[in-house]
Amino acid sequence: MRAAVHTAVNEPMRIEELADPRPLAGEVAIDVTSCGACHSDLHVLKGELPFPTPSVLGHEVAGVVSEVGPEVSELAVGDRVVTSFIMPCGRCRNCARGDEEICERFFAYNRAKGQLYDGGTRLFRAGGEPVWMYSQGGLAERSVTTASSVFKVPDGVELADVSSVGCSTMTAYGALRHAADVRVGDTVAVVAAGGVGSALIQLAATFGASVIVAVDISEEKLAAARELGATHTVNSAEADAPQAIREITGGRGVDVAFEALGRVATFEVARDSVVEGGQVVIVGIAPRGTVGEFDLATIARRKLQIKGSYGAKPRRDMPVLLDLVARGLLRPQDAISRRYPFDRVQDAYDSLNRGEIVGRAIVDIG
């Protein structure tokens, strides 16, 4: 099969021929049709998140099951599926208590070493050299992953529309539903209207938020945010964003501010935009060593809540999200602004790095 292989920091990925991966017990193989280009992949390519090389990135996978391993009964060859970027082991302490979005084995094996849960990869070069896997290693014609991270796509839903549900949408849902518990009538700000920010805006509208303020420095992204459900927009390159948000909300600030990029400047906007007792939810993945400041007296005096959110709970929440898509209440396809053929996979990430992607870019593979 062909795969886009990451060989060194700040070097372009190379399309290589790798051996077809085969699933082991509890795993499935997927013929990949499309894969979203996510900022987390970009962090790895730039060396901002340490990860072994050579490796195959890509964790927003849509495709068709081509092979199932032993001990897999809920999936069959021919199933149209989408994956979650989190691959819950179902056995560790965190999974057992329902916190599978912070699965201990996922971070110890996959995020640290590029391995599945037997301590190995499923990807190899022709000479037998191992190639490590970032989640599913979805920037390839075939992917092997744990069955716990694979979900059937409802009839009538186009595969081409839903690959991003497994990361950007699931990340947004976890922040809204589990971290912040946004309710009907709440006011929210989404700081940075990129891929995850676009999903936050869509879902906040679905959740019934009364005010949704999108903040960005790109007028193109702000225009797209209005189409996705933002009630107000603020260009933080032209205005004092926290002050503008307070003016929009009658001087109060929002109930919840989501930081969706992982930068100090966007964190500071979120931090300064919430009402007393409000929540600041950090969703964007920052490069290691990024430090945001917060006055401790302000946290106590204003009863502020600072929360981190890594994603949703795959086995509980992915079926909910796919049902919303099937009923037309959530339209991830509306956030897709560019599609790239597999041969131009590096172009997708170069455009993402330059800030040119509005919403989500998708790499079409199969």
CATH fold-level label of the largest domain: Quinone Oxidoreductase, Chain A, domain 1
Total DSSP E strands: 18
Helix count, DSSP H or I runs of 4 or more residues: 11
| First-last Cα distance | 11 Å
Low-confidence stretches: none
- Our estimate of the beta-strand percent is 25-35%
Which structural class do you get from the secondary structure elements? alpha/beta
What is the CATH H-level superfamily of the largest domain? Medium-chain alcohol dehydrogenases, catalytic domain
- Globally, the shape reads globular
- Radius of gyration based on Cα positions: 20 Å
Helix content: 25-40%
CATH class of the largest domain: Alpha Beta
Number of folding domains? 2
SSE succession: EEEHEEEHHEEEEHEHEHEHEHEHEHEHE
Biggest sheet architecture: 7 strands, mixed
Looking at the overall shape, the CATH architecture of the largest domain is Alpha-Beta Complex
What is the averaged pLDDT score?
A: 96
Keywords: Metal-binding, Oxidoreductase, Zinc
Organism: Saccharopolyspora taberi
Family: Belongs to the zinc-containing alcohol dehydrogenase family.
Cofactor: Zn(2+)
